[in-house]
Amino acid sequence: MKYVCQLGLILAFSLAGELLAALVPLPVPAAIWGMVLMLIALLTRLLRVEMVRETGRFLVTILPLLFVVPTVGLMACFDLVFQNLVPILAVLVLGTVVTFGVSGLVTRIFTRGGDRDA
């Protein structure tokens, strides 16, 4: 019963995110709204981690299973992916390099207190 209640809380925040996405004219996905609402609830202590811990851990454990359906969809469109393989790989490599660079700069700024020349 505990897991059902915890899942209900998580789904309530997901539903609130869906409602916000429908009401607010911003291009923000409903899942992001829901996570932001849950973060606010956790930070303001309206929601305690203990209230969703076990179900959250379970959902993280089965997360790889949730990627099976998109992967099958990709395989169904393999011809289209293969035709655009070079641009797709270019974007993936460029995105990875940019992510590494930005992450390194941000880490440097935070670990050295904002002093870039040190």
Structural write-up:
The chain has 118 residues and is mostly helical. It folds into two domains: 1-66, no CATH class; 68-118. The chain contains seven helices and no strands. Helix 1 crosses helix 2 (30-43). The model has no long low-confidence stretch (mean pLDDT 92).
**SSE sequence, one letter per element:** HHHHHHH
Question: How many beta-strand elements?
Answer: 0
* Beta-strand percentage range: under 5%
Q: How many structural domains in the coordinates?
A: 2
The separation of the N and C termini measures 55 Å
Uncertain segments: none
The percent of residues in helical segments reads over 70%
Largest sheet: none
Shape: extended
Helix- and strand-based class? mainly alpha
Number of helices: 7
Our Rg estimate from Cα atoms comes to 20 Å
Average of the residue pLDDT scores? 92
Describe this protein with a few key phrases.
118 residues; 0% strand; 2 domains; 77% helix; extended; mainly alpha
In short:
By secondary structure, the protein is mainly α. The chain has helices spanning 2-23, 30-43, 53-61, 63-66, 68-76, 78-83, 85-111.
